[in-house]
Design brief:
Elements lengths: L9 E12 L2 E13 L4 E5 L6 H9 L7 E9 L2 E2 L5 H7 L4 E4 L3 H4 L6 H13 L3 H14 L5 H4 L9 H13 L5 E5 L7 H18 L2 E6 L2 H7 L2 E6 L2 E7 H6 L4 H8 L45 H4 L5 E3 L2 E3 L5 H15 L2
Parallel strand pairs: 3-8, 3-9, 6-7, 7-8
Antiparallel strand pairs: 1-2, 1-4, 4-5, 9-10, 10-12, 11-12
Helix pairs in contact: 4-5, 4-7, 5-7, 7-8
Family: Belongs to the ABC transporter superfamily.
Membrane topology: Peripheral membrane protein
Subcellular location: Cell membrane
């Protein structure tokens, strides 16, 4: 999703991540490809179990190597991550790439002060002294909007509100000025006011540092606020991708239509009922044949030759835009128009 004359900072090619379990092999990610440039934000959206978090934990090398079969290619600034040693990955994590987790309270140690936790990350990667690390922690707390950072640096996580803990997590993730930041649903547990503040903070920090951001969420409203490009995942695969404007205004896949139909509109009639997607996400132990979305797709019967249930649709991408669907371009345009008209009445 970058221009052809620009080398992507992060390049993922045909990534497959399969876990061995007592019940069989879980195909958590099954052939994923995308690029991300510096200073840009890629929003990865999909229901729980679609493979979003597994993808990004794999980029960071945070997987059980003994029970996980990984194939494909992940290049970070030209360096292959899948063949990197654990020592190499430790040097990269927190330094060149970093992650903000969804639950800050669970991710922060209750036994150490906020300042110590931020400072230890800085000391590990820079060799700074304790005094220098404390000063850096105060500076980062100030940057993320924590009031009285020289005082709050000595507080413990339980003394921070939910929004402030998330800001502290962001400070920790950015303390070494990483070039890639992965945000795994960092605003899900926050109220809408704090959520907006966190989103603005990420955008401001990205502008300041030129950071490449992967933002994982199930909320297309959040995607509309922060992303440049969007990748829609379902059942471990990418079913649609394009710019934010392309995906949200002219979606090409019935699953994306379903996601849009299940969220309220701020500029439409207030009495329009939501249209949740029927059924449940597929089991990745035994996924459906063909298109993995076809058991829940209201349009599968429109493909009269039965390919939806027997043949996996290819994700054909042109200029960063594509969708994996057997419907023709004309059918998709007409069916989405009908879907949109139904939602507006």
């Amino acid at each position: 999703m970058t221009s052809t004359d620009q080398q992507p900072f992060l390049s993922v090619r045909d990534l497959k991540v399969h876990f061995s379990t007592e019940d069989g092999v879980v195909k958590a990610v099954d052939g994923l490809t995308f690029d991300l440039a510096k200073g840009k934000t890629l929003g990865i959206v999909g229901e729980s179990g679609s493979g979003k978090s597994v993808t990004n934990l794999t980029i960071l090398g945070l997987h059980d190597r003994e029970r996980t079969a990984i194939d494909g290619e992940i290049l970070l600034d030209g360096k292959e991550l899948l063949t990197a040693s654990e020592r190499e990955l430790e040097r990269l994590r927190g330094n060149k790439m970093s992650m903000i987790f969804q639950d800050a309270l669970a991710s922060l140690s209750p036994y150490h002060t906020i300042g110590r936790q931020i400072g230890e990350t800085y000391r590990k990667h820079t060799g700074a002294s304790k005094k220098e690390a404390r000063a850096r922690a105060i500076e980062m707390l100030r940057r993320v909007g924590i009031p009285q950072p020289d005082v709050r640096v000595d507080d413990y996580p339980h003394q921070f509100s939910g929004g402030m803990r998330q800001r502290a997590m962001i400070a920790m993730a950015l303390v070494c000025d990483p070039e890639l930041l992965i945000a795994d649903e960092p605003t899900t547990a926050l109220d809408v006011t704090v959520q907006a503040q966190i989103m603005d903070l990420l955008k401001d920090l990205q502008q300041e540092f030129g950071t490449a951001i992967i933002f994982i969420t199930h909320d297309l409203g959040v995607i509309a606020d922060i992303a440049d490009d969007v990748l829609v995942m379902y059942g471990g695969r990418c079913v649609e991708r394009g710019t934010k404007k392309e995906v949200l205004r002219a979606p090409q896949h019935p699953y994306t239509w379903g996601l849009l139909g299940s969220m309220p509109s701020l500029d439409g009639p207030v009495d329009v009922p939501l249209s949740p997607i029927p059924g449940s996400p597929p089991s990745l132990l035994n996924p459906p044949s063909g298109c993995r979305f076809h058991p829940r797709c209201a349009f599968a019967e429109k493909v009269t030759d039965g390919r939806c249930s027997s043949e996996q649709p290819l994700l054909q991408v042109t200029d960063g835009r594509g969708a994996a669907c057997h419907l023709t371009a004309d059918q998709r345009r007409d069916f989405f128009a009908d879907h949109t008209a139904t939602r507006s009445h």
